[in-house]
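Researcher: Next sequence.
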Amino acid sequence: MTPSTLARAIGLEDKVAFLKRPEGYPEVPGAVEALETHLAWVFLTDRFAYKLKKPVHYSYVDFRTLAARRRDAQEEVRLNRRLAAGVYLGVVALTLEREGRLALEAEGVPVEWLVKMRRLPRERMLDFAIASHSLDEGALDDVVGLLAAFYGTARSIVLPPGDYRRRFEQDIEANARAIAEPRYGLPSAVITATAAGQRRFLLRRADLLEARAAAGRIVEGHGDLRPEHVCLGPPPAIIDCVEFKREFRLLDPADELAYLGLECERLGAETLGPKLLARYGVLTGDQPPAALVGFYKSFRALLRAKLAAWHLDDRTVRYPSQWFNRAQTYLTLAERYARQP
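Model: Next structure:
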């Protein structure tokens, strides 16, 4: 069997098994922690984090070929260096050596490409700080400063009149339809009321959305601004942006900050969202209307409820009750903000 033929025969299970072993890494760490997500496996060593993308295919992403996974890994490094310059070290190969052994960052036939990152201290991540009641709000100010500078230098995305609003119209229908599937067991009345509230906002206050687009507020942002992606530093860093679909990154900074506030609220820090937006307003002069922020939160919460419910379709998911409860929590938040004037 030729090396290239043997390389094609090596499956995801073989790669994961190898990467779980400390002796497979150049630095030979004391231990390796393996974490599985919907799209990837992440391997944490003493000093580094390595992300291996799964060969999956969904409506929004296609990682079935090695070339596609390599391109996406390169794009992930490029995009995340915008907000975490010193964290993303590059793309490295998992190879098959001449003797038929797997090796990381070594000569041989590439069988996989991994994103290599500097490992960030867990205790400095925002979700940990919220859970442990150890948040230093001065450090949070530094994060907002990083975001304000990022958005301030981002190129404005020009959208034809009405396109920004129509994107929400389409997504509201798609989110509500997906999460209302009977197999998820979520309350249909709440889903209906939430979607109706969001549509009502678009009918009565679409001018708020169109004003943001007309003012050049739409930029290429992060796309998934959650507390577990925010390192308080020093220096602050924000990791794990949406790299696989540019459309998901084209948004209003007020939307991203509302989303971060929503996620902080879900974790029990309800007052952080308003503080983040207030600090951002001081730094930039941008003070989005409260009604718009509420709509963004409701929209994001319904989207996150859908994504949580979709985990229930994965036959390999280990804790289905966790994802059901999370979907319910998001749905409750979505309805609450949809009811606000």
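Model: Residues 188-214 form the longest helix (27 residues). DSSP finds eleven helices and twelve strands in the chain.
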